[in-house]
Amino acid sequence: HVQVVESGGGLVQPGGSLRLSCEVSGNISSIYAISWYRQVPGKERELVGVLGDGGRPVYAHALRDRFTISIDNASNLIYLQMSSLRFTDTAVYYCKASGYNDQETWGQGTQVTVSS
């Protein structure tokens, strides 16, 4: 059983930066990938990036120059560092743990609002 909890969302001005955290707990050895998604009301959930077993994150093409995923293995934390934020980055950001048993665990999401 795996639990995922996101944190770090908030209000940020355009051009600013924000770091989100995804804390993973439970049967961590069953996980092969952690993904970050985001969703705007009325739109489908959009993949931001994935950190898999290979250790090298893969990003949505449009975001790879501004977003960075990193991991703190000692703390079971996966970070999403966002920079040069734009109004269009406003969304609820979700973390998803993908397990070898095909089980997917989503967090509750954290709101990021980019506004002046």
Descriptive report:
The protein is globular and about 40 Å long. Strands 2, 4, 5, 6, 9, 10 and 11 form a seven-stranded mixed β-sheet that branches. It is built from no helices and eleven strands. The N and C termini lie far apart (about 40 Å). By secondary structure, it is mostly beta strands.
Structure at a glance:
About 0% of the residues lie in helices and about 55% in strands. With about 120 residues, the protein is mostly beta strands.
Please supply descriptive tags for the structure shown above:
116 residues, globular, seven-stranded mixed sheet, mainly beta, four-stranded antiparallel sheet
Walk me through the topology.
Layout: E1 2-7, E2 10-12, E3 18-26, E4 31-39, E5 46-52, E6 58-59, E7 67-72, E8 77-82, E9 91-99, E10 104-106, E11 110-114
Parallel strand pairs: 2-11
Antiparallel strand pairs: 1-3, 3-8, 4-5, 4-9, 5-6, 7-8, 9-10, 9-11
Coarse structural class: mainly beta
How many strands in all? 11
The major beta sheet can be summarized as:
7 strands, mixed
Shape from CA axes?
globular
Helix content: under 10%
* Cα-based radius of gyration, to the nearest Å: 14 Å
| Poorly predicted spans | none
Number of helices: 0
Oligomer: single chain
- Helix/strand order: EEEEEEEEEEE
The amount of beta strand, in percent, is over 45%
What is the residue-averaged pLDDT?
96
- State the end-to-end CA separation: 41 Å
